[in-house]
Amino acid sequence: MATAASPRKLKSAVVETTLRCDQACRFCGSNAGRGARPELSLERLRDAFEQVVRLGADTIELGGGEVHLREDWLEIIGAVRALGATCTLVTGGGIDEAQARRARDAGLARVGVSFDGPPEVHDSLRGLPGSFDRARRTVDAFRKAGVPVGSNTQLNARNWRELPRLADILLGEGLYGWQVQLMIPMGRASTARNLWLQPYEMLDLVPTVASVIERCEVAGLRVIAACNLGYFGPHERWLRKFTSRQGHTLGCGAGVRTISIDSDGNLAGCSALDASLHGAGNLQTDSIAERWENATGLRLGLVRSPAWGHCASCYYASVCRGGCSATSIALLGRRGNNPYCHHRALDLASQGQRERLVPLGSGPVGRRGYTRFELVREVC
Asked: What domains appear along the chain, each with residue ranges and CATH number?
């Protein structure tokens, strides 16, 4: 069995370069915004890039906040490229064609532009009128600059039913790929009650995602379901089609081949984790290599933590181990019991039951802010 110290090559790193942002997304898990926030210097970022590349990372994804709000964002891209690694970037938009060309010349290989629904839904969720059109102009700017463009979408109670409509729009954008994932109620999303997904919604949400994946593949657009969306229901083969040779989830992948660095320099195995609470070291004091080899908290996906609650009695528990750790931690305070599971919702529905998340009423905790929940089981 693999342990936290098992030699395993790092494949990629996700780096939160800043928490500055010019939008006010209601679902933002990072609490990004306009105010001055801590961020790593260019020198510190260069050192981090060098360390992860030495460990084997061949791709570094830059995120935020909004990366391009840093005055040195092109130098950051260039620092990644100078090491021979592939540099990618995620943005909500606001980059024009001249900036896109400069990013290409600095070494940007791919960009992901976020879309969260058709125009009226996207603008409402992002708190910025015209945000959808701005994102679309950013796609066009990068396409004209010759940079491949993909997209990503966070699914929540407000937008998941709009996924087929959004697919109709994105199919005409010439994207190389599209990732869909579930919103985790943390950061600003921890107080956005009308956006919280309920576990029983997986009964309709997952088949909707699977049908969109199938339809888009026929049209030439690869849609990838993120690892917090599943698991082991009748549509699992479509959800894992492009990410698992086995055709099903293998459980939490935090720290298996990836590492995350937040804008404070905290290290974690997954960018969805609040590294202030569930991280394993900091760039200011720790060697990434030493943490990668020895820190249990960083190599979370290799540590076989037992499933608990409903997940403990599941037929797939030994493989799935509760699915996405970040989701389980955000909802219930510990990994290994993830109520956002299609198989689980189906199993309960067959017994005439369903689960509902109820906030406990305690204040948000951690750097990002978690709102703890309890699970209530009720007759459906």
From this structure: 12-304 (3.20.20.70)
